[in-house]
Structure formats: structure tokens, C-alpha cells
Design goal:
Elements (H helix, E strand, L loop, with lengths): L8 E4 L10 E7 L6 H8 L9 E6 L2 E2 L5 E2 L13 H14 L2 E11 L1 H12 L6 E5 L13 E5 L9 H14 L7 E3 L8 E3 L8 E4 L20 H11 L2
Parallel strand pairs: 2-3, 2-6, 6-7, 7-8, 8-11
Antiparallel strand pairs: 1-3, 4-5, 9-10, 10-11
């Protein structure tokens, strides 16, 4: 129960979970149209966990249109409705499981990316890193520095790439990296460029990928390309 409303989520616990072994924690937020069960499938995060990890897939509230939401229409940028949902989940899971609270990560796509980027800014002291695809940001300022991986197709018609650049620039600013030159990465095919040297605690990856088609052959630049989940989990694992 959060703010008087019953909320739901999926929690995936490793089969070899031990109460004495600290677990990393990944929150994965869905978009406007796909529910948490669907994104669990196509995000494809779990098999790429380098360390023992709990995965939580929260469920947004459905509006009158049937679409999911993470905020109410008049929410201020610094206080979106479901920041409280995240806070409640983090507290609850932290009580019931052995969680490494310095290894909390956030993932999102589309509306879930917008919410994840905004949440990472608003709760930077509790979030180690955020990785998103095809989303913007509502926050005008971040609470603190937070590592970020922003993936966005320049041809995206649903969420303009300018929104992704604004999220990137917000993290660059608060991570003190605005003056840093970006360096191309050759580890995967998302066209990523890194801001921050190898020892940087809070680097920013900007990935203007060029995967214009879904695996079924449909032109849809807003899609989640194969390998994205693996790349995001690798980014989390690479952080000092």
C-alpha cells in the first residue's frame, strides 16, 4: 500500500539466494503500453548479472485510457507520484532480503526511461547507476552525481532524441563531466561513447544506436535492440 493505493510488483530472487550474501538490486520500469511481465522478457537482464542480484519489476498504475503511468498529471518534477513507490519497495526489500544498498540500479524504456532518469536524479544518494533507452527526464536538477547510460535512436519518432540528449546533459552536468571529451566504445553495437576516464566513479555513456528495425523486420526506431540488456548489465558491472 502506497499513498492509500494497493501496488504490485514482481520480485525475482536467485535460486541460490543465501540470507548472508549481499545481493545487488535492479529495478526495471516498464513503459506506457507494456506491463512488467512483458518487459521482463524483452529487457533480458537477469541472465547477464555478474553478481548475485535481485530484480524487481514494479507495475505502474493504469489510467482511464488503459495506459500505464508513473506520475499524476500535476506532479512537480522533483516529486513524481511513484518516487514514493520506489522508496517503499527499497525499504521493504531491504528488510526482507540481504541487499547491498550501495549497488542499487535502475533500468527503463520509453515512459519507464523518463521515470527512471527522473528517479535517478531525485534519489541519486540511493541509486548507484541508471541505464535507459528512448526516454527523457523531468528533473531540473539532480540530488547528487549518479552514473548513467543513455541509449537513444536519433530517428526515434515517439520520443525525440533531443529528450535523450537533455537527460544525458543533466547527468553530465551533475557528474562534473560537461567539459570532458567523449571516447567511443567498441564493446557492443549500440554506438556508445563514454564521458569520464576509466577510473571515473560516475561516468556517462551516450549511445545513439542505429537499430531502426525490430527483430521481426518492422521499422520502429523506438525498439529495444537485442543485446541492450546485456550492455546495460555490463555497464553496471564495470563501475568502480
Amino acid at each position: 500500500m502506497v499513498a492509500g493505493r494497493q501496488r504490485s510488483f514482481m520480485l525475482i530472487v536467485p535460486k541460490d539466494y543465501h540470507s548472508w550474501q549481499p545481493q545487488q538490486l535492479v529495478f526495471a520500469f516498464h513503459g506506457r503500453t507494456n506491463n512488467n511481465a512483458k518487459v521482463r522478457g524483452y529487457y533480458d537482464l537477469e541472465r547477464y548479472a555478474a553478481q548475485p542480484t535481485l530484480f524487481v519489476y514494479p507495475s505502474g498504475l493504469q489510467g482511464k485510457s488503459g495506459h500505464f503511468t508513473w506520475s499524476a498529471p500535476r506532479d512537480p518534477a522533483h516529486a513524481l507520484r511513484d518516487y514514493a513507490f520506489f522508496d517503499a519497495l527499497l525499504a521493504d526489500i531491504g528488510k526482507r532480503y540481504c541487499v547491498a544498498l550501495n549497488h542499487v540500479y535502475i533500468v527503463g524504456h520509453s515512459l519507464g526511461a523518463w521515470f527512471s532518469n527522473s528517479l535517478a536524479c531525485a534519489r541519486a544518494s540511493r541509486i548507484r547507476a541508471v541505464a535507459t533507452l528512448g526516454g527523457g527526464i523531468s528533473a531540473r536538477a539532480c540530488q547528487d552525481a549518479v552514473a548513467a547510460m543513455i541509449v537513444h535512436n536519433p530517428k526515434d519518432r515517439l520520443v525525440p532524441v533531443a529528450d535523450g540528449r537533455r537527460a544525458r546533459d543533466m547527468f553530465l552536468k551533475h557528474n562534473g563531466l560537461l567539459e570532458m571529451r567523449d571516447v567511443p566504445l567498441a564493446t557492443h553495437d549500440l554506438n556508445c561513447r563514454r564521458y569520464g576516464h576509466q577510473a571515473e566513479r560516475n561516468p556517462v555513456l551516450w549511445c545513439p544506436h542505429t537499430h531502426d528495425y525490430t527483430w521481426r523486420g518492422k521499422y520502429y526506431p523506438h525498439n529495444w535492440p537485442r543485446g541492450t540488456g546485456r550492455a546495460m548489465m555490463a555497464f553496471f558491472a564495470s563501475l568502480p
